[in-house]
Amino acid sequence: MHYDTRKKRDHGLPYNPFKALVAPRPIGWISTVSAKGVVNLAPYSFFNAVADFPPMVMFSSTGIKHSQINAEATGEFVCNFVSYELRDQMVGTSAEVGPDVSEPEMVGLEMTPSVYVKPPRVSRAPAALECKYLKTVQLHDIDGVPSESHVIIGQVIGVYIDDAVITDGMVDLGKIQPVARLGYADYSAVDRVFKLKWDGGEGLKRALEK
Ligand SMILES: Cc1cc2nc3c(=O)[nH]c(=O)nc-3n(C[C@H](O)[C@H](O)[C@H](O)COP(=O)(O)O)c2cc1C
What we know:
Pnp Oxidase, Chain A; 7-stranded antiparallel beta sheet; 3-stranded antiparallel beta sheet; binds flavin mononucleotide
């Protein structure tokens, strides 16, 4: 099949397949503090690392939501990672509640102060990135029409890793079992890790010389 996204429901399927294709997506569980001091926590799967050094991450908000408002107002956010054991609390914090409701309290999650920024991290999260807000990019479509989507970019200035998930000096994803977002109501946990060897292109060079 092939379909045109500019025509409404041209895919002819019961549900839009787009997000099931761009999968798995990591989940940034974003904690912020509002200008009034309320701690906010919400999951974003339009989330990723976008630069290595200095490290930068982004999350994309469909419509202007509290995480975006708070990050812009205070200049800070924290990206917590979701281990398999935290999956239910993560989904619980996606509830659309008022700005004065603190999602961590709502789902009974303890928070721990961050080192460099005001938003606290989820105490049980295996890792968290402390970010300074850089900028928001509102996305426009090919006709120049502004979309609902805003990409919030931040620079990671501090990294917390639970010592329990470090094995032989390396982050042990087998211990974290990070939860990834798939399409529809589906999720996956990373539970199989394999290595591929990169020989610096030597194998390809030899094949081309033959
Ligand atoms: C796993 C998961 C991923 C989500 N990803 C996004 C996302 O990438 N962008 C978005 O706007 N909303 C996303 N949502 C919905 C938000 O979490 C939800 O609208 C939430 O209430 C926003 O909270 P806030 O207003 O406190 O930022 C996601 C929800 C779940 C459960």
